[in-house]
Amino acid sequence: MTGMDGGLDDELLFGPEDGAVTTAMPNRVSGLPWPVLVVDDDPQVHAMTAVLLRDFDFDGRPFEVVSALSAEDAKVVLARRPDLPVALLDVVMETEDAGLKLVRHIREELGNRRMRIILRTGQPGQAPERDVIVGYDINDYKAKSELTAQRLFTTLVSALRAWRDIVTIERNRQGLERILSASAPLFEMRPMRSFVERLAEQIAQVVDHGSAPAVLACRPVARADGGLTVELVAGLGPFARSIGMPVGDVLSAAAAAEVADALTTQRNLYHDDRCVLAFRTREHGVTVFRLERAEPYTADEQRLLELFCNRVAIGFDNVCLYEELMALNRSLEQRVEERTVELAANQKALILAKERVERALERELLARDQQRQFLGMVSHEFRTPLAIIDSAAQLLAMRAGQVEPEMLERLAVIRGSVQRLTGLIDAHLTDERMQSNALVLERAEIDLPELIRTVVQPFRVAYPDREFRLTLDRLPRRVEIDANLIGLVISNLVNNAVKYSGPGGPIALNGDSDGAMAVIEVTDQGRGIPESELPRLFDRFFRGSGASGVPGTGIGLHTVQQIALLHGGAVAVDSKLGRGSTFRVVLPV
Questions:
Q1: Where does the Histidine kinase domain lie (predicted)?
Q2: Which of 29, 412, 431, 526 can bridge 60 by disulfide, Cβ–Cβ 3.0-4.6 Å?
Q3: Cα–Cα distance between 274 and 268 in angstroms, integer?
Q4: CA–CA distance, 557 with 493 (Å, rounded to integer)
């Protein structure tokens, strides 16, 4: 990516893909997005993260990037949205340890232990992984250069699964605590009267809106003569002094009739200022509660009362509920323990993987240093003899024009070959400068059609049997570009078109304008590219199945893409197997 001064940034935002082929999912289920907090002071990190995640989903839900450009911005976001499940957190922002301080803030000040925190840094030396893992409560540590789209997706899915498990366990634990705290005191009241009295208090708390409702509990009680009478067995408010009295002596005829109907039908009745609840226990028959208050009972309160009474009745009948709850609690504890062991194993695997990556990185750095030395030697040793050959060919051409004109064509072939060999050296040197972040654009106002004609001319001489069709009239004439690099782009694309198309097949170069962009297309009628290989076509050193028997290094198209991106443009390809390919370069005018 390009910095504000036109050069490359000091670090890669994301690493190159490592073999995974990622395709868009057009008909994906659209669910509530998974919010991912991205804390980084580089806006390009936020943009690239959103781009990489927009084609992924997990459990039918896409990803949503919640951005914060500093640790202080992140604190504001977390105060507003404390339920964010995952955070991708940079270390160095407004200060060198702003990210680590934010971790302390989340874990200690906010007390948020559920959020999965993934440190994603471009400067691993600033915050060594081993020290950070030991000293801070984070869940993963990633360098920006190793996070490809697929690895970013894998990391986020693992974090979301862990967060979801933790939330589920917490909710289950809280639910169990509420059930145990509400039911344990009731279950301790083994006498029916004590149980009903405590139950009346609990029901009053369920529907309490600031003014205590009047509650009475009544049930059939055996009389001395062997008959049954409905008496108050518990009461709150105005009914507290009527316990033990018949319902007909306490309530009006209509209210007593509602109680009698509830005892018979065992159905609940709800009115604006009162409700009658009936539940049956296996041991003690039917008990009816009547609640009165000034405020009407809402639908939610009705459902809450239904649920409360049903659960209490079922719990009272089942004397083994406590043991079952304890067994469930032990099961949850075992699940937590197993999950903890699994996370420890994953952490150990990550440490081993980190060590392997470090060793591989050391080998790669050594190989790159050796390659850099070799390229420097080749550039120095080859350019001088190539320049001498080109100069000698020019002198011979001047003489041959007067003495042997038929030699001019052969000398032109020699000069074209020298130019292509020089271009090959330039391509490798350009690629090496890109990898070391040392390439700087040297923009100047250039006649773009004339530049393209100049690049194509050596190919006309070297391949006299090939037809090169140039349609450049609609291309902007004056553009501000790096002529050497854009010339290298055109040369690479034309060279590929020549190598991968049959003898005699025409090669077309078309130019056009699209708003403020110049569009250059190079089209051949060659063997084409398999659709499965298109996503990796611009990867460094990638050579497709159709490259068998064709000389090349696999850096040409990667260099083309990087040069186009440096200019603020892009490159794309359309290809049909067996029918040819069209490479399209778009550059800002």
A1: 377-589
A2: 29
A3: 11
A4: 8
Burial tier of 33 (Cβ tally within 10 Å: 0-12, 13-18, 19+): middle
Beta pairing partners, 312: none
Tell me: do 371 and 447 sit in the same domain.
no
Verify that 39 and 169 share a domain, yes or no: yes
Q: What is the pLDDT of residues 259-309, one digit of tens each?
A: 888 888 888 888 877 888 887 765 556 778 888 877 777 676 677 677 777
From CA 339, how far away is CA 337, in angstroms rounded? 5
User: Do residues 402 and 483 share a domain?
Assistant: no
**Contact between 580 and 525 (Cβ < 8 Å):** yes
| Interatomic CA distance for residues 501 and 493, integer angstroms | 12
**Does residue 584 share a domain with residue 444?**
yes
User: What's 246's DSSP letter?
Assistant: B
Q: Report the chain's mean pLDDT, rounded to a whole number.
A: 77
Indicate whether 193 pLDDT > 60: no
Same-domain status, 454 and 539? yes
Is 155:85 a contact under the CB 8 Å cutoff? no
Pair of tokens at residue 512: 């056009």
Packing angle, helices 149-188 and 299-317, rounded to 10: 70
Residue among 248, 245, 228, 240 at smallest CA distance from 200? 240
Q: Are residues 385 and 485 in the same domain?
A: no
- Return the pLDDT at 384: 63
Token pair 């309530």: residue: 251
Residues 445 and 582 in one domain: yes
How far apart (Å, rounded) are the C-alpha atoms in residues 479 and 277?
Answer: 84
Confidence of residue 470 (pLDDT cuts 50, 70, 90): very high
- Whether residue 521 has pLDDT greater than 60: yes
Give the residue numbers spanning the domain of 238.
Answer: 189-297
Domain-located, residue 20:
no
CA distance 456 to 451: 9
The DSSP symbol for 169 reads H
Average pLDDT (415-443) is 66
Tokens of 291: 């609640």
For 377-406, write each residue's pLDDT tens digit: 665 556 667 667 766 766 676 666 666 666
Mean pLDDT confidence for 553-557: 75
Mean pLDDT value of segment 173-197: 53
- Is residue 323, in this structure, part of any structural domain at all? no
pTM for the model? 0.36
Let me know: does 104 contact 111? Beta carbons within 8 Å: no
Secondary structure in 3-state letters for 39-51: ECCCHHHHHHHHH
Cβ atoms of 246 and 260 within 8 Å: the answer is no
Count of the separate structural domains present in the chain: 4
